[in-house]
Design goal:
The chain has helices spanning about 1-10, 30-35, 40-55, 55-75, 75-85, 85-100, 105-125, 135-150, 150-155, 160-185, 190-200, 205-230, 235-250, 260-265, 265-280, 310-315, 360-375; strands at about 10-15, 20-25, 40, 105, 285-290, 295, 300, 305-310, 375-380, 405-409. It is α+β, with helices and mostly antiparallel strands. A hairpin with a 2-residue loop joins strand 1 and strand 2 (about 20-25). The structure holds protoporphyrin IX containing FE.
């Protein structure tokens, strides 16, 4: 990576499919990028989000700051124990339903089936459920299509992406029906209610987009963490020892409902997640240039986009020695709450648009990965898959299946 940066320079320009992308590779300037008044997050994403969510663009622009804060406060660390109080339990229930003991299966498939429901209910309340297994699987199928083809769906005329459009409409209909049911009962405020306060009748459309941001990032990160851990005996043993120690100290059985205090006592688990996130981070974080300006002496004209590439930035050997290996220990000297501030690490973006769901996402991954490892011993049947590189704006998905066989511990 270092050599490539030397070859291309700290800022280079790509013209691709009618877009001009100025790629910034100098880590010392990442903060300048996030803070620059000449670069705008909203102008970068509005077209895509309004098309995907069938949201009125002018209204979205008007509401964006309030929306951002609604999401941030609904899933803030202060509320995390509350919103995810039964997450480990729900995750285990899903595992019982979808994991065939002793049978070779795709780990990514299992993790999606087991995590989608607990995450959706933590965000929108327990009422957002499914009639039966078939209904859940149909929902999953639509979500997978919507997520997988998102970047094509928001760029091409819908005539070229009929299945993506169909999936989007299915998910929106689902959200509208749940929103109607949810509004009828008295309960604690969920993100649905917060969105309703800001957006009124459009709340299901926004709820669908936040669901996309949550599931399409948190679930693959949990998958990669498990794939790397299960493929590395040393890491696997060390992590299981940490988990077993927590059980022994607390007199927990193998099915604990972990809270935030428990999670703080699992530092090696956090190192494993952080290391997986480093390796599987998204292709780009972008900002539209809204005013001509100069960056390191280069003219950057209005209209194009300046982008950072977390996937490549995280492979810079100056910040991450031996960058291609999965080494959770590289994070051990950093306090857990400072890990994501390490220079060169930009998986959650930055500045005033930094991911508002990052603490919640992290906690969800911790809970699900820990619950999985406490329940099952797994044999991996293939090496960790390659990254598909299809997700420029979300974390990477696997290119091939990663097959495992699970048995109860
Ligand atoms: C753990 C995995 C996650 C990763 C790696 C991730 C990454 C990101 C990144 C890179 C951005 C763009 C930030 C920027 O441009 O500076 C973003 C934005 C966003 N994320 Fe996350 N995210 C994750 C989980 C979540 C979760 C669980 C939620 C919801 C609860 C969420 C909700 C959002 C929203 C709503 C935005 C748009 C913010 C805005 O409108 O300004 N994310 N995320």
């Amino acid at each position: 990576m270092g050599k490539k940066i030397e070859e291309l320079g700290p800022l280079y320009t790509i013209h691709c499919m009618g877009q001009t992308l100025h790629v910034l590779t100098k880590p010392e300037l990442y903060q300048t990028f996030f803070d620059s008044p000449n670069l705008d997050f909203e102008e970068t994403v509005f077209d895509a989000i309004t098309k995907a969510g069938l949201i009125n663009k002018a209204l979205f622009i008007e509401r964006h700051t309030k929306l951002y804060h609604a999401v941030k406060s609904a899933v803030s660390p202060l509320r995390s124990d509350h919103v995810s109080a039964t997450m480990c339990h729900k995750f285990r229930e899903q595992c019982r339903q979808f994991i065939n003991i002793g049978v070779e299966t795709s780990l990514f498939d299992i993790i999606k089936k087991c995590m989608y429901l607990p995450i959706i209910q933590a965000l929108y309340g327990d009422n957002v459920g499914f009639r039966n297994k078939e209904h859940y699987l149909k929902f999953m199928q639509a979500f997978e299509r919507f997520d997988r083809d998102f970047e094509l769906g928001v760029q091409l005329p819908s005539i070229f992406t009929p299945k993506w459009k169909q999936a989007r409409n299915y998910l929106l209909k689902f959200m509208i029906s749940k929103f109607d049911e949810e509004s009828k009962r008295g309960h604690d405020l969920t993100l649905f209610d917060e969105l309703k306060i800001v957006t009124g009748e459009d709340a299901p459309n926004y709820a669908m987009m936040v669901m996309l941001a949550a599931l399409s990032n948190a679930v693959p990160v949990a998958f990669w963490t498990l794939a790397y851990v299960l493929s590395n005996e040393r890491v696997n043993n060390k992590l299981r020892a940490e988990l077993d120690e927590l059980l022994a100290e607390n007199n927990y059985d193998f099915n604990p409902e972990l809270n935030s205090a428990d999670l703080k006592r699992l530092p090696y688990l956090s190192c494993c997640i952080q290391e997986a996130l480093r390796l599987c981070a998204e292709g780009v974080v972008g900002r539209r240039v809204v005013k001509d300006f100069k960056l390191m002496g280069y003219d950057v004209p209005k209209g194009g986009m300046v982008v950072l590439c977390p996937y490549w930035a995280h492979r810079d050997e100056r910040f991450f020695p031996d960058p291609l290996t999965f080494t959770p220990e590289r994070w051990e000297s950093i306090p857990i709450n400072r890990m994501s501030y390490k220079q060169g690490f930009i998986a959650f973006g930055g500045g005033k648009s930094q991911c508002p769901g990052r603490f919640f996402g992290y906690m969800v991954i911790q809970k699900c990965v820990a619950s999985f490892l406490l329940q099952y011993n797994c044999t991996a049947h293939s090496p960790v898959p390659k990254f598909s590189m299809q997700h420029l704006v979300g974390v990477q998905h696997p290119m091939e299946d990663f097959k495992v066989t699970c048995n109860y511990r």
